Amino acid sequence: MIAITFALPVESSGFVALMRDQRRAVSGDTEIIYGEINQRPIAIFHTGVGRKACQANIDNFLRVEHPDIWISSGFAGGVGEDLRVGDLFLAENFSDGQLLSAAQRLLAARNVRTAKLFTSTTIVDSTAQRNEIARAQGALATDMETETIARACIARGIRMLSLRAISDSSDEPFPAPPHLLFDLERQRTDIAKLSLYLLKHPSNVWRFVRFTSRIRQARQALTDAIVALLQELRG
């Protein structure tokens, strides 16, 4: 069985819509979605954003499942100057060597980059933060979950592939302060606070519209890439 994780449903919705024979189960507070793509049995769950939420949901999942392959997926922020929103990104430092080689071959015709991914404890937004991560870590992208997932996989001998789509970058940053776009403690967006911010900063409304459009493009690129991988990956 292949496990595929996303931080949030906004990242997974396109892929989940393609799954056949869906059924859902709950382990602890974590919902697991079972189904098939290309006749491959799959289990999906959402890790949440950040180390704390991620670890709790991983623990719940691994109480009931032990997948052969784990695809850590979702969005990542670009910190390298040459990454653009919608680009696909393979994390060489968190991926099994054989799975990484297979993914590079299967996704060769797509706009996919392979480099180091840095897992941050905070949402990275400013150009200064992005530049510092690129300089200090030698990374081209950042997320908030993959290192935690990788540690769980290593501890249990599960082969893992890290595949992300770039959702924001230095050239195309977030349209509002990160804490308004997503509340880490509550694991959700406070729509009222975000709406109030946009009302007070009407020049950012168009940026927000463009951001949501880019998110849809990144989600579609990610969905298509995972489906392509499942044509040949065995689990």
Low-pLDDT stretches are none
**Termini separation:** 5 Å
- Biggest sheet: strands, sense, closure? 11 strands, mixed
Order of helices and strands: EHEEEHEEEHEEHEHEHHH
Number of strands: 11
- CATH fold assignment: Rossmann fold
The residue fraction in helices comes out at 25-40%
Q: What overall form do the CA principal axes indicate?
A: globular
CATH architecture call? 3-Layer(aba) Sandwich
Q: In CATH's first tier, which class applies?
A: Alpha Beta
So, the CATH homologous superfamily?
Nucleoside phosphorylase domain
Q: Give the count of structural domains.
A: 1
Report the C-alpha radius of gyration, rounded: 17 Å
Provide the structure class: alpha/beta
- Average of pLDDT: 92
> Please, how many helices?
8
What share of residues are in beta strands? 25-35%
Describe, in plain words, how this protein is organized in 3D.
The chain is built from eight helices and eleven strands. Strands 1, 2, 3, 4, 5, 6, 7, 8, 9, 10 and 11 form an eleven-stranded mixed β-sheet that branches. A hairpin with a 2-residue loop joins strand 3 and strand 4 (40-46). 39% of the residues lie in helices and 26% in strands. It is an alpha/beta fold.
Give a quick rundown of the structure.
The protein is an alpha/beta fold. The radius of gyration is 17 Å and the shape is globular.
Give the secondary structure arrangement, pairings included.
Blueprint: E1 2-6, H1 9-16, E2 20-27, E3 30-37, E4 40-46, H2 51-62, E5 69-72, E6 75-78, E7 88-91, H3 97-106, E8 112-115, E9 117-119, H4 127-137, E10 141-143, H5 146-156, E11 159-168, H6 178-181, H7 191-200, H8 205-230
